[in-house]
Amino acid sequence: MKKLIYLLIILFLFSACTEKEKTKESKPKNIILMIGDGMGLSQMYAVYTIKKDNTNMARCKHIGLVNTSSIDDLITDSAASGTAIATGNKTKNGHICVDKDGNKYTTILEIAEEHGKATGLVATSTITHATPAAFIAHNISRGDYEGIAKDFLVTDIDVFFGGGKNHFAKRKDSLNLIDSLKARDYNIVFDVDKISSIKNGKTAGLFYDEHPPKRSEGRNDFLEKASLKAIEILDQDEDGFFIMIEGSQIDWAGHANNQEFLLDETLEFDDVVGKILDFAEKDGETLVIITADHECGGFTVVDGDLEKGTIKGHFSSGNHTPVMVPLYAYGPGSEDFCGVYENTEIFEKMIVAFGFEGK
Ligand SMILES: [Zn+2]
């Protein structure tokens, strides 16, 4: 009997070790990149306090610190930082995946497509806004939403969910890109409640004419529903997938110096992180990367109570700040995301994780 128990213990330890070794050795089949726009360390700590040390981001054991400056500005905007993360190149504020002369930089989403991966984008802003645009579009101006919308037809992206229906359907050039998407066999969804009816196939979900409302003003659980549905569809591709999921409005709360708005959007983001990590834990072949494109609002936690789950915050700016942002990584290849580095290296590390280097 004693021998049997020893044997069981040895078997258990062996499987745990091989599990750990497997994570170190193995490459992810899927990468889920989550960006909390404007979410600095203080924003994360505020949620940590409110959730009484029970945040999902803290489930990640591999942590990095990322420098966010753009090519000629200590303080970046979302276009330049999105470009850096998506292409590995620094550029000027306002530019989407092009250099200062308009020459294109190829994005991780485009490269994943070239390697047969399924791809997706989800955002709580218009899907043509700076951060999601930085994974699929090329434009000298982040404000050219109709030009950016056209680029969604250049890359065979599989799933995109967000706002900005007008940029596809109510355009100055009177093109109807919804018809173009239909011609390319996309399922088209305009009603959030219809998301669950989509089972598979390329899907364009444009649920708001312009930007979605705040979570607290009617957006409700859109981010969770859209993210899990997108992954359900992409996960049907045997070659694996790449998806970028953005909590866009954390930044808007920072600009507005609105603490209640900031906390609600960051709490939602962390809740969705939890669902994504649950998926990755079950799946075992998924690398999850959670970070920010920059901090916004110069937010600091000046007081609070961990037991009561309350905080008192302070804003020192109505704009972005240059402070480094945290990065949390989980899954195969996540150990490579430790350390202090430039935002451009997130792209390089994703390329290595997928095994695309030199290909
Ligand atoms: Zn901003």
SSE pattern? HEHEHHEHHEHHEEHEHHEEEEEEEH
| Total E-strand runs | 14
Estimate the strand proportion: 15-25%
Task: Could you tell me the CATH topology label.
Answer: Alkaline Phosphatase, subunit A
Bound molecules: zinc ion
Outline the low-pLDDT stretches. Answer: 19-24
Number of helices: 12
Give the CA-CA distance, first to last residue: 55 Å
Rg over C-alpha atoms, rounded to the nearest angstrom? 20 Å
* CATH homologous superfamily (4th level) name: Alkaline Phosphatase, subunit A
CATH class group:
Alpha Beta
Biggest sheet: strands side by side, in what order? Answer: 5-6-4-3-7-1-8-13-2-14
Mean pLDDT: 95
Number of domains: 1
What is the annotated CATH architecture? 3-Layer(aba) Sandwich
- Tell me the structural class: alpha/beta
Could you describe the largest sheet, including whether it forms a barrel?
Answer: 10 strands, mixed
- Tell me the overall shape: globular
- The helix fraction, in percent, is 25-40%
Brief summary of the model shown:
By secondary structure, this protein is an alpha/beta fold. The protein has helices at residues 2-25, 41-50, 78-87, 108-114, 130-133, 145-151, 166-169, 177-183, 222-234, 249-255, 259-283, 344-354; strands spanning 30-36, 62-67, 118-126, 159-163, 187-189, 203-206, 241-247, 286-291, 295-296, 299-305, 310-315, 320-321, 325-330, 339-342. The chain has 12 helices and 14 strands.
Describe the structure.
By secondary structure, this protein is α/β, with parallel strands linked by helices. The protein has one domain: Alkaline Phosphatase, subunit A, CATH 3.40.720. Helices cover 36% and strands 21% of the residues. The chain has twelve helices and 14 strands. It has helices at 2-25, 41-50, 78-87, 108-114, 130-133, 145-151, 166-169, 177-183, 222-234, 249-255, 259-283, 344-354; strands at 30-36, 62-67, 118-126, 159-163, 187-189, 203-206, 241-247, 286-291, 295-296, 299-305, 310-315, 320-321, 325-330, 339-342. The strands form three sheets. Strands 5-6-4-3-7-1-8-13-2-14 form a ten-stranded mixed sheet, with helices on both faces. Strands 9-12 form a two-stranded antiparallel sheet. It has a two-stranded antiparallel sheet with strand order 10-11. A hairpin with a 4-residue loop joins strand 10 and strand 11. The longest helix has 25 residues, at 259-283. It starts with a helix and ends in a 5-residue tail after the last helix. The protein binds zinc ion (ZN).
